[in-house]
Amino acid sequence: MVTSKKTKTKKPAAKPAKPVLNIIVPVYNEGDNFERLYNEIQDNIKIPKRLIVVYDFDEDNTLPVARRFVKKDSSLELVKNTRGRGALNAIKTGFDHIKQGPVLVTMADLADDLKTVEAMYACYLDGAHLVCGSRYMKGGKQVGGPLLKRTLSRFAGTSLYYLRRVPTHDVTNNFKLYDKTMLSEIEIESKGGFEIGMEITVKAFHNGAKIVEIPTTWYDRTAGTSNFKLWQWLPSYLKWYLHAYKPRTK
């Protein structure tokens, strides 16, 4: 009599968990905006995420509002800026706080279109080291804001795209998603202002990183006060614009 051996059916391998998206939000007295920002993040970003709010000083009026959400949301963290006041140092403090994975920088003034984030995250999963939200490519736009600032920003982005082949039309926008490993390979030299996004993009380009762009819409703030100082920071933007034309290392 022949008996048949039972074969065990192998269970399918579990799909690897998607990496958590680290979202850095520098704040400076954004109490009027924070509740709406938090709700828009929850409504528009359904992927696994961690929200890191970086503040300069304990009297910031963002904190009482943000603490209400910390009590019910363990993925929300309040981190004090340890590098000196200002958005640039807050962003760098956020970078220090993150060990691995994708890193998104967005502002608390609700200027960035958070509906774009999941498409940016998908580009990261597809191998991009840097994903740029672009106002100036086809499908992107800017609503409001000072004319001179818009003009200079568009010129910088489109000229670097066509003349230097930097693969984004919007090099100055800080609404970007970075790979933390790539960030760790870049020495950030920016000292003030918002030119950090431009510096990282130019250096990533020189290092041979995979850079892609996604069309997005930028909206001028409707509450609070802008801290953008065009004439003070213009020399720094010009520095990184000219740096882009240096020979690539990779």
SSE arrangement:
Blueprint: E1 21-26, H1 34-44, E2 49-55, H2 62-70, E3 76-80, H3 87-97, E4 102-105, H4 117-125, E5 130-134, E6 141-143, H5 147-164, E7 176-179, H6 180-184, H7 196-206, E8 211-215, E9 217-219, H8 230-243
Parallel strand pairs: 1-2, 1-4, 2-3, 5-8, 6-9
Antiparallel strand pairs: 4-7, 5-7
How many structural units, i.e. domains? 1
Uncertain runs: none
CATH fold group: Spore Coat Polysaccharide Biosynthesis Protein SpsA, Chain A
CATH architecture call: Alpha-Beta Complex
Can you describe this structure?
With 250 residues, the chain is an alpha/beta fold. The protein has a single domain, classed as Spore Coat Polysaccharide Biosynthesis Protein SpsA, Chain A, CATH 3.90.550.10. The chain is 35% helix and 17% strand. The chain has a 7-stranded mixed β-sheet with strand order 3-2-1-4-7-5-8, sandwiched between helices.
